[in-house]
Amino acid sequence: MSGQGCLAFEVVGNRTAITGARASAPLKLLTPKNHGDARWTFVATYGGGLVDGDAIALDVTVGENAKAVIGTQASTKVYKCPSIEATQTLEARVARGGLLVVAPDPLVPFAGARYAQRATIRLEENARLAWLDVLACGRAARGERWAFSSYSSRTRVFVNDVLACDDALVLDAADRDLVRAMGRFDAIATLLLCGIAPRTFASNEVVASSSAFSAGTCIRVAGTSTGAVTAYAREVLADVRASLGDDPWARKW
Prior knowledge:
The chain is mainly beta. Helices cover about 10% and strands about 50% of the residues.
């Protein structure tokens, strides 16, 4: 099933407002109130996950000096896909001085799942981005550890229409033994930060490495549990949470 959505954030008065929101099933957009000057939107799907052939597309516009947070209501489950992969696509534009935080709950692919995601984010001068993508091993308690069929992601960040980062990850059970390849780790994550300085610290439960690109920093994280990875990401994003005036993950992570 195809679901499409559009979101627009603009500064109205002294805080950000959602000036446009539209979604078609199975996509739905939740816009709770918060105490800060940013606006949050949590993306969800009817049925609680993605199935064979689902295609979700979201278009986001963040106006000048606006602050937007895009998250999910809960972890995104990807059920077994016998024939066609499930996909999610994000197109985003952030005007000068704007902030876009994309930090969904972890993706949880079930055994036999096929999933692909694509994101293109265009930043104007002095725009900021915090992008977090967490992949869980699956339903480990049910013996479905790294048992999905395929996972792929590609995230491209443009700054003033110049490509600054092109990040890709492909995990395919047809090419390698994923359980062996992932070893002791049950979750991995990628953080892309533009115009934001990461807060670094040590943790016994995760392994992390960072590399700089022309407009920011890419951080790779692997952890022994999903909780360990999300806790690490939350600390890395501590300054981002402070700038929002409220913590969208206070009752989640």
